[in-house]
Amino acid sequence: MTTRPLQVLKAHVSSPKAWIVIGVTLAGVVILAEAHRRRRRRTGSEAAKEDFGAFLERFELLPFPQPPPPALKQPLAGLTFAIKDIFEVKGYVTGFGNPDWERTHEAAEKTAVVINALLKNGAKCVGKTVLDELAFGMTGENIHHGTPVNPQMPSHIPGGSSSGSAVAVAAELVDFALGTDTVGCVRIPASFCGIIGYRPSHGAVSTIGVLPNSQSLDTVGWFARDPSILHRVGHILLQLNTVEPRRPRRLVFADDLFELSKVPKHKSLYVVSKAAEKLSGYQPPKHINFGQHIASNVPSLKIFCEQSTNLQNGISTLKALSSAMLSLQRCEFKTNHEEWVTSVKPRLGPRTANCVLTAVNTSLENIKTLYKVRSEMRAALQSLLKDDGILIIPTVADPPLPTNLKKHSSAEFFDRALALISISSMSGCCQVSIPLGKHEGCPISVSFISYHGGDKFLLDSVLDMYSSLQEQATVASSSLPFADTNGNLDTSELLKEKGNAAYKGRQWNKAVTYYSEAIKLNGANATYYCNRAAAYLQLGCFQQAEEDCTMAISLDKKNVKAYLRRGTARESLICYKESLQDFKHALVLEPQNKDASLAEKRLRKLLN
Predict the structure, then answer these.
(1) Chain center to CA of 299
(2) Which end of the chain has the smaller Cβ count within 10 Å, N or C?
(3) d(Cα 601, Cα 567) in Å, to the nearest integer?
(4) Where does the chain cross the membrane (predicted)?
């Protein structure tokens, strides 16, 4: 929808040369109070070729004036971003992914709070991006504006509804982009496009100036390729304090949910586990059946379970949770937009039309129960994670579908995706999707979920772990034997976990036995040797501990724990010089390691 002055000009001017003169004249006139903008709407093959079909409209909103030196540079200075066409920008009509919506609405009178926050902190907005109609979809397809091209898999869907924003980041057209996440609208496209996608705690980021789909589920999310940019944007939008004492982290693996995934565990779950083992401040991981945890702690879900299923079946519980989520979305969409839908009768794509029709025909009688499920879910996650836990799950269960696939071919795909997506949507917890390379040409991702309000903790955790995660993902993708040893791999990891449990129970000999069995099945795993060395240290078997640590270091030269444990073993064997070298090496790898620092000082005194 064009502005009224341009409509008048179009009606009276047909000469291209005249339009050039008029365009030059207007260049200094069409300026908003808050920013200068360049406007260019593109369609069809031109847009797809030039920007992967990500953008609906190109313009510029320049950053607010920066403070003069010697003031510090603004945190987002020099960064560009794009916005999903659901955010209001003063002077522009917000299209909501549908031409009939655009036609029946006026230009916005104010700019969304989050956009102003980013402009104030130095970022430049360069345009609006494509989305599923009315933010009602998971595929990223739009019959009116086209489907943005997934840079990772061009013949497959980018995921939605924030498809254009995800593609703009994945194609390196912008540094970061804003989307909204109601039922996976940021997390799914982040996973399919191989980038980082963040859904904040519900209510943590302002939605003023954002068109609603379902207020109880809607959040403003963002995409980035670089974890430091994700972190900086998060600090601005969440208004976080920059300094906070470091807390220990406890990883909780939802083993039952990884059973849904098509990706081998050694490329997902074990990558996270190994990355954490190489970092300090991470407690031994916990493995749970998440579906059963929800079944035991969210009793209001019973009415949403299919009569033929048992609530104690974990996966059926998550299907019930996704059913409740969709019911809540429909109820609130109906309240928000039923009047517009019935009066305008918009032209919609088949999938969106089905969603909208179901929504406007939805009864509101269960609304109180739906809100109760949401409250119980938040409490269930809080009891599980407390203030130091991070739940690890697959972001999605399946690779992206081919574009233009018929609905009946993809029902199971949507069921599995919604089961995973419903956890954060219905609990309001924060979640981040992290890329971990590829499997058979498809992007892999895992998600970290933290408690409601734990956004800084989660963002800091991503920053802390990202490099190690990518390193381990590379190792996993290039480890040829894994393809043929899944059974041994699973068994050896199970033995390692049993060894960890025995160690925690101070059963040192039992721990050594379990770790030894794991090594027999997979002798190329540095962690097994390193863990067995820890048990040998407790038993006073210092030579065996030294030998195990040496083997671990030969397999992984960046294994900080192996250097620390070998240093401890050598110190106990009165090999102070060699021990000092180990602790020095640990400090090179991890300069802030307190144990290594204290040991180095102690050994220097002994040697002097």
Answers:
(1) 28
(2) C
(3) 13
(4) 18-35
Check whether 593 has a pLDDT greater than 70: yes
Q: With CA atoms as reference, report the closest residue to 209 among 62, 89, 64.
A: 89
Q: Which of 51-60, 144-153, 287-296 has the lowest mean pLDDT?
A: 287-296
Q: Give the 3-state DSSP-derived string for 354-419, with helices as H, strands as E and coil as C.
A: HHHHHHHCCCCCCHHHHHHHHHHHHHHHHHHHCCCEEEEEECCCCCCCECCCCHHHHHHHHHHHHH
Question: What is d(CA 391, CA 447) in angstroms, rounded to the nearest whole number?
Answer: 8
Half-sphere exposure at residue 389, Cβ-oriented, CA atoms within 13 angstroms? 20
Cis peptide leading into residue 299 (ω within 30°)? no
- Which of 16-30, 46-60, 182-196, 581-595 is most confident? 182-196
CB 555 within 8 A of CB 525: yes
Single-letter amino acid, residue 302: K
Compute how many other C-beta atoms are within 10 angstroms of the C-beta atom of residue 142: 24
- At 477 the pLDDT is 86
In Å, how far are 76, 83, 233, 320, 347 from 228, measured between CA atoms? 11, 19, 9, 37, 41
Rounded to an integer, what distance in angstroms lies between the CA atom of residue 95 and that of residue 382?
Answer: 37
- Pull the structure tokens for residue 128: 């609006």
The HSE-up count of residue 317 (CA atoms within 13 Å, CB side) is: 21
Which residue do the tokens 């304090």 mark?
241
Spatial distance between the Cα atoms of 358 and 329, rounded to a whole number of angstroms: 11
- Hey, what are 17's tokens? 């040369």
Question: Whose CA is closest to 410, among 195, 157, 217, 182?
Answer: 157
590: helix, strand or coil? coil
Q: Is there a cis peptide before residue 161, judged by omega within 30 degrees of 0?
A: yes
pLDDT for the residue 237: 98
pLDDT greater at residue 219 or residue 572: 219
What is the rounded radius of gyration, in angstroms, for the C-alpha atoms of the chain?
27
Distance (Å, rounded) from C-alpha 483 to C-alpha 421?
29
Would you call 580 exposed, middle or buried from its count of C-beta atoms within 10 A (0-12, 13-18, 19+)?
buried
DSSP letter (8 states) at residue 134: G
C-beta separation of 198 from 445 below 8 A: no
Confidence of residue 473 (pLDDT cuts 50, 70, 90): very high
The 10s digit of each residue's pLDDT in 52-109 is: 999 999 999 999 998 888 888 899 999 999 999 999 999 999 999 999 999 999 999 9
Q: For residue 131, give the 3-state DSSP assignment.
A: coil
pLDDT digits (tens, 9 = 90+) for 113-125: 999 999 999 999 9
- Strands, sheet with 219-224, edge to edge from the N-terminal-most edge strand: 40-41, 55-61, 124-129, 80-84, 176-181, 219-224, 196-199, 430-439, 442-450, 389-394, 249-254, 282-288
| Residues 6 or more apart in contact with residue 552 via CB below 8 angstroms | 526, 527, 529, 530, 533, 559, 562
Q: What pLDDT score was predicted for residue 262?
A: 86
CA-to-CA distance for 442 and 227, rounded, in angstroms?
Answer: 21
Q: What's the CA gap between 397 and 261, in Å, rounded?
A: 4
Q: Which of 376, 340, 374, 378 is nearest to 359 (CA)?
A: 340
Query: Helix/strand/coil (H, E, C) string of 426-452?
Result: HHCCEEEEEEEEEECCEEEEEEEEECC
